[in-house]
Specification:
The protein is an all-alpha fold and 166 residues long. It has helices at residues 3-26, 29-45, 53-75, 86-92, 95-112, 115-126, 131-138, 142-165.
Length: 166
């Protein structure tokens, strides 16, 4: 089995385990999915370094753990609200704040993302299409669609946070 196949088979076999680990560390399913996708990109870039499937698996788990920790640290400054208090917090947010945030996110999507990223966000988040459908529509692999969506979400979050700070 060649190196790219080792990485792909290790990732496929461990994806759910990696997601579970990432979710325990980040505390958020979306951040966990982003961590797993970021880790796979890192692993893929170094696929020639792995001598066996076992080596690729070990590197995969370690990379997911480290990536998840990085995301958790970045998000540590966010205020956490327990589920019991969430309705009260949501009630405190008025419609104009939500509308302003929505418009800012739309502006970021339209001005800051690549054409592919915009199309993927539209197809996935607005139209509710599955990754396989998006891949066919854009002539991409489903894994590439997932990575691009992850990168797009990450970019929107980063730009939104920077705008809020200023």
């Amino acid at each position: 089995m060649n190196q790219p196949d080792r990485i792909t088979s290790a990732f496929t076999a461990l994806r759910e385990q990696m997601l579970s680990l990432a979710q325990r560390i980040t505390g958020n399913r979306d951040d966990a999915a982003d961590a797993v996708q970021d880790a796979f990109v890192k692993l893929w870039q170094q696929h020639s370094n792995y001598l066996s499937s076992q080596h690729a698996r070990g590197a995969g788990i370690t990379t997911v753990r480290n990536t998840s920790i990085d995301i958790a640290r970045r998000n540590a400054h966010r205020s956490d609200v327990s589920i019991e208090h969430a309705p009260e917090v949501v009630a405190e947010i008025d419609d104009t704040e939500l509308e302003t945030a929505y418009l800012q996110v739309c502006d970021i999507i339209h001005k800051e993302l690549s054409d592919n990223q915009r199309a993927i966000i539209d197809m996935r988040e607005v139209r509710g299409m599955e990754f396989d459908e998006i891949a066919v529509a854009l002539g991409m692999q489903p894994a590439t669609v997932r990575v691009e969506l992850s990168r797009a979400r990450k970019r929107v979050r980063e730009i939104y946070r920077k705008r809020k700070e200023n």
